[in-house]
Amino acid sequence: MDRTKVPFGWACPAGHVDGSKESKSVEDETPEVALIREVKEETNLAVKKYHLILHEFIGWGRCSRGVCGHDYFVFEVDEWEGEVKKADREAKDIGWFSREEIKSLKLEPVWEYFFGKMGFLKSE
């Protein structure tokens, strides 16, 4: 998704885990529950099967809440249901991209970092 909020750029669906001290939630949410909720909110897709591929704290990069530093859980979604529908408050545009196409996008900085770390941005 091409984000409408800071940090700008193309990014995968993402968001805060509810229940942190910034949240007004009564119960803490797990990263897995946050994955399912955020993907549904931002893309209209229902996540059915997934696995964790990366977990890392990154101390740089401010978000729209003004927080600098986040504990990232990056999941690969193996199965989903539904039709993609862009959430206008979250994204200017949305789409599916190949690894080769990702190289030409103006990525959100943390996703440039993650895709680089995973080898998606290397020339073949």
Overview in brief:
The chain is of the alpha+beta class and 124 residues long.
Characterization of this structure:
The structure is a single chain. This protein has one domain (2-117): Nucleoside Triphosphate Pyrophosphohydrolase (Alpha-Beta Complex), CATH 3.90.79.10. Helices cover 21% and strands 29% of the residues. The chain contains three helices and four strands, in the order E-H-E-E-E-H-H. The strands form two sheets. The chain has a two-stranded antiparallel sheet. The chain is globular. The two termini are 25 Å apart. 15% of the residues are buried.
CATH architecture: Alpha-Beta Complex
Euclidean distance between termini CA atoms:
25 Å
Low-pLDDT regions: none
| Strand fraction | 25-35%
**What gross morphology would you assign?**
globular
What is the string of helix and strand elements? EHEEEHH
Average pLDDT: 92
CATH uppermost class: Alpha Beta
Largest sheet, strands/sense/barrel: 2 strands, antiparallel
Q: What's the number of extended β-strand segments? A: 4
Number of helices: 3
- Predict the CATH topology: Nucleoside Triphosphate Pyrophosphohydrolase
Biggest β-sheet: strands ordered side by side in the sheet: 1-4
What is the CA-atom radius of gyration, in angstroms? 14 Å
Domain module count:
1
Helical content band:
10-25%
The structure class reads alpha+beta
CATH superfamily: Nucleoside Triphosphate Pyrophosphohydrolase
